[in-house]
Amino acid sequence: MPKILVLPGDGIGTEVTDVSLKVLKAIEEKYNTEFEVETALFGGCSIDEYGVPVTKEVLKKAKDSDAVLLGAVGGPKWDKLDYDIRPERGLLALRKELDTFANLRPAVVYPALKDASTLKGEIVEGVDIMVVRELTGGIYFGTPRGITKLPNGEEKGVNTLVYTTGEIERIARTAFEIARKRRKKLTSVDKANILEVMELWRKTVTRIGRDEFPDIELEHLYIDNAAMQLIRRPKTFDVILADNMFGDILSDEAAQLTGSLGMLPSASIGKSGAIYEPVHGSAPDIAGKDIANPIASVLTTAMMLRYSFNMDRAAEDIEGAVRKVLDKGYRTADIYQPGTKRVGCKEMGELIIEEVIKSP
Ligand code: NAD
User: Fold this and answer.
1) Distance, CA of 27 to CA of 31 (rounded, Å)
2) Of the residues 261, 299, 342, which should be mutated to test ligand 1's pocket, given the most ligand atoms within 8 Å of the CB?
3) CA nearest ligand 1 atom 26, residue
4) CA-proximal residue: ligand 1, atom 13 (nearest)
5) Is pLDDT above 80 for 125?
6) How far is 141 from 127, CA to CA, in rounded Å?
7) What 3-state DSSP class applies to 188?
8) Do domains 1-101+270-360 and 107-258 have the same CATH topology?
9) Residue 295 Cα: closest atom of ligand 1
10) pLDDT for residue 260
């Protein structure tokens, strides 16, 4: 039986994960399947109980699971702790344990929410992009790094952008495979006109595409052009592949097209498992009030079904249910507009489940 470790975390993490677990239950019933679901403490609540944001046992459970479904961690209660035992350190430890080398950030503009974007509705309507970002290499990890003093009294800061062929190959394969499950188009982003590492990036991505994914249309863009095209013609993108730093920037830019933090799911795929989590944090300002938007977490669950369990139809059921509920005019407070119907976190979950059950 597929194993899922659920780490609701803190603040609204527990509220939105609760909704996701109910959606998962509905999927189990609909598809007559079963998951082994175990829940554990993670983040601030783990600090309260065990003095650390994540215990060794939980890390081991994560490694033994097929997927980890996470809520969010953190909050003012733990903000004054030493940096080493802050809730967010738990996230880093978990990512390291599972060696999550690929970060997946979809940006989907739902027709009902097209006016929530800062861009014109006609530019963003129908946008459905997946940004695949390399997560464990590149300039954020390369050595040498640091700040040194020069003999003349100045300081010198150094970071190193480095990628090996193997690192590029594995993230490229991940991105091509995702494109194969979608509209079969991949845009690889680099700066091959200036940087040798990026010349290697482009050469390697081109070879993997030619030899292993001839059915996928491959386009290359320089980062500066990609950043521009993403707001000029966002609808023409399907999957975007980028290194750690460019992916960091482009995934936030793509997210902004959609307009709301409460709608954004994400996944981090590793060699031995994957972590699925909404992009938002624990939102202490609204925690415990049943007003959080559970859609990011629910869509995160759909990603888990698609990418860890190959349950594409179940994932489509959930995504379709979200679309229908929004089309019917239901909104949580964060996406509320006059003329729509305001609902709480739990009720939004119930409405989505109703549509999941109803869909053929
Ligand atoms: P946040 O994402 O928690 O909240 C930012 C704003 O967006 C808040 O006004 C919040 O109410 C709103 N918001 C976020 N998610 C929402 C949702 N689902 N529905 C409705 N409104 C939503 O970011 P923050 O306030 O900067 O951070 C709060 C805490 O979360 C901090 O301790 C931070 O370290 C932590 N954090 C954790 C993660 C994570 O667990 N991956 C990510 C970001 C921040």
Assistant:
1) 6
2) 261
3) 281
4) 283
5) yes
6) 32
7) strand
8) yes
9) 18
10) 82
Query: Of 153-162, 168-177, 191-200, 257-266, which gets the smallest average pLDDT?
Result: 257-266
What ranges do the domains of the chain cover?
Answer: 1-101+270-360, 107-258
| 204 Cα–ligand 1 center, Å | 37
The CA-based dihedral angle spanning residues 137, 106, 189, 237, taken in that order and rounded to the nearest 10 degrees: 170
Is 140 part of the annotated catalytic residue set?
A: yes
How many angstroms separate the CA atoms of 48 and 32, rounded? 38
Place of tokens 């994932």: 315
CA pseudo-torsion sign 207, 135, 12, 90:
positive
Kindly state the tokens that stand for 241: 């592949």
Nearest to 27 by CA among 4, 56, 57, 47: 4
How large is the greatest C-alpha to C-alpha distance in the chain, in angstroms? Answer: 73
Quick one: fold of 107-258? Isopropylmalate Dehydrogenase (3.40.718)
CA dist 48 and 27 (Å) reads 33
Q: Is 110 a catalytic residue?
A: no
Measured over the CA atoms of residue 29, residue 264, residue 238 and residue 248, the dihedral's sign is: negative
Residue the block writes with tokens 């459970």: 61
- For the chain, the distance separating the N- and C-terminal CA atoms, rounded to the nearest angstrom, is 25
Architecture of the structural domain at 1-101+270-360? 3-Layer(aba) Sandwich (3.40)
Token pair recorded at residue 296: 């990011």
Residue 259 has pLDDT above 80, yes or no: no
